[in-house]
Amino acid sequence: MIISRSPLRISLGGGGTDLESYYSKRGGFLVSAAIDKYVYIGIHKIFHEGFIIKYSQLEKTQDILSIKHPIIREVLKKYFSDGSNIEITSFADIPAGTGLGSSGSFTTALINGIFHLNLSKLTSDELAERACEIEIDILKEPIGKQDQYIAAWGGIREFTFHNDGKVTNKVMYENEDDYIDLKNNLLLIYTGKTRKASSILSEQKDKSENNDELMLKNLDKVKSMGLEFASLLASKDFKSYGKLMHEHWLLKKERSTAMTNLRIDELYNFGITNGSNGGKVIGAGGGGFILFQTDNMNMLRRKFIENNIRVIHFNFVNSGTEIINV
């Protein structure tokens, strides 16, 4: 059995500027980090003809075109059209719809596994672009390129999204001590809610494509903040980073009324009143996880746990999409 895995990610600043509707006009920039929570894809050759697909549902079919899971169907159509006799199983450390980039991780892990099955190999950029093609160009999802690129590359990286669609990146931190320093300033909590990002991102995409002045100005400011985030993280001025996160969250909420809700506001305010300098919902908003920066990690963690709010332990990881079993 081939097992391919891709890390999930935490966006550290500038998220939203990776959508083509924005970067094709103004260029995008963000900082993103891979964490030790993964999406796994198992691919197994089977005796009988056809396909067995296992995720939250079970599919058995003789025909690729009849596969209901859209990403699996389109990946197999493009990269395994003459093949059969395989079972594909997916599992993950964190559920989908929580803002950690699971669909991008799923797609990169699946493509990587299929290429390995075909005795081929892709560079990180090639893998990310092929995953973007499946999700954005073929399936028409109103999403950006961040998730596929950080999943493919791993690490903590600055990504620049050029007007012509090209994506370049550079490493922010290169050693484990830097990772630990940053992690010891961040706390991740679960809101208890999942959501579908496309409904929120569709609004941003439509407004950006139609040159909505307020949306473009909002994203211009987000990009500017992304560059400032990168500078603060590079100098390890974590307290200032946290305060800027608060400004970023206020700005992010202006992009859509679906960005927050009563539960998110309650959790966010609880964190601020118990030792956080700032935070933001990870991903498109509406649910999932909230990331806080704090100077007093132990106190803030204890406060959340005492109130039965789930705190998620994580580490940053250097590796992107990889084969872990053959």
Percent in strands:
15-25%
Count of extended strands = 12
Helix content: 40-55%
Question: Radius of gyration, rounded?
Answer: 20 Å
Q: What about the largest sheet?
A: 8 strands, mixed
Give the overall form. Answer: globular
Number of helices: 11
The class by helix and strand makeup works out as alpha+beta
| Rounded average pLDDT | 94
Topology pattern, helix = H, strand = E: EHEEEHEHHHEEHEHHHHEEHEE
Give start-end ranges of low-pLDDT stretches. Answer: none
Distance between the termini: 5 Å
How would you portray this structure in words?
The chain is of the alpha+beta class. Helix content is 42%, strand content 24%. The chain contains 11 helices and 12 strands. Strands 1, 2, 3, 4, 5, 6, 7 and 12 form an 8-stranded mixed sheet that branches. Helix 3 packs across helix 4, helix 3 crosses helix 5 and helix 4 (124-138) packs antiparallel against helix 5 (146-153). The relative contact order is 0.19. The model has no long low-confidence stretch (mean pLDDT 94).
